[in-house]
């Protein structure tokens, strides 16, 4: 389940609990209820920020950002793919590139996660390609065991 869904369910539970307390206390509990709702909201925001800060984040970048075709009718671009905070579930993954329908894949031979000290802050890959004029869909899929992540971006060469 996504972190956002868990947080939404948790917040809804807190609000129903607090509204139940207000119903029991009647009008005397109004200030207490507003305080508890505020406290619950602040706590959930802090919890969400903590969870999301450590979650793996995948990013695909293209350089140059707006490639222009040269005399050959194409543009050389460098694609950068990075996973920040990979954790053991996305460490040393199989990386599959799909560029306008053409696919390539590579896997690395890595040390076991438990033997690493310090743990890696990111996993990355780069690819240099020549793209013709027009729009190109770039997809990167990383897979490690049952964990998988897909990132895509459209690049237009003018």
Task: Describe what you observe in this structure.
By secondary structure, the chain is of the alpha+beta class. The protein contains two helices and seven strands, in the order H-H-E-E-E-E-E-E-E. The chain has two domains: 3-54; 57-157, Immunoglobulins (Immunoglobulin-like, Sandwich). Helix 1 runs antiparallel to helix 2 (30-54). 30% of the residues lie in helices and 39% in strands. The model has no long low-confidence stretch (mean pLDDT 78). The strands form two sheets. It has a four-stranded antiparallel β-sheet, with no helix packed on it. A three-stranded antiparallel β-sheet has the order 1-2-5, with no helix packed on it.
Strand runs, count = 7
The residue ranges in which pLDDT falls below 50 over 5 or more consecutive positions are none
Please report the number of helical segments.
2
**Widest beta sheet: strand line-up:** 4-3-6-7
CATH superfamily of the largest domain: Immunoglobulins
Q: What order do the SSEs take from the amino end to the carboxyl end, as H and E?
A: HHEEEEEEE
Sequence-ordered SSE layout with sheet pairings:
Elements: H1 3-25, H2 30-54, E1 57-63, E2 74-84, E3 94-99, E4 102-106, E5 122-132, E6 134-144, E7 147-157
Antiparallel strand pairs: 1-2, 2-5, 3-4, 3-6, 6-7
Identify the notable features of this structure and list them briefly.
2 helices, 2 domains, three-stranded antiparallel beta sheet, single chain, about 160 residues, Immunoglobulin-like
């Amino acid at each position: 389940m996504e972190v956002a869904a868990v947080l939404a369910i948790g917040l809804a539970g807190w609000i129903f609990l607090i509204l139940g307390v207000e119903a029991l206390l009647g009008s005397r509990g109004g200030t207490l209820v507003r305080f508890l709702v505020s406290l619950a909201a602040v706590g959930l925001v802090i919890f969400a920020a903590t969870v999301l800060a450590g979650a793996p984040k995948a990013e695909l970048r293209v350089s140059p950002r707006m490639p222009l075709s040269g005399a050959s009718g194409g543009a050389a671009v460098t694609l950068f793919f990075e996973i920040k905070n990979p954790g053991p579930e996305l460490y040393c993954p199989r990386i599959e590139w799909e560029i306008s329908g053409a696919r390539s894949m590579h896997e690395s031979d890595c040390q076991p996660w438990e033997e690493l000290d310090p743990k890696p802050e990111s996993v990355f890959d780069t690819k240099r390609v020549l793209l013709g004029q027009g729009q190109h869909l770039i997809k990167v899929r990383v897979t490690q065991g049952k964990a998988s992540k897909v990132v895509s971006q459209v690049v237009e060469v003018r």
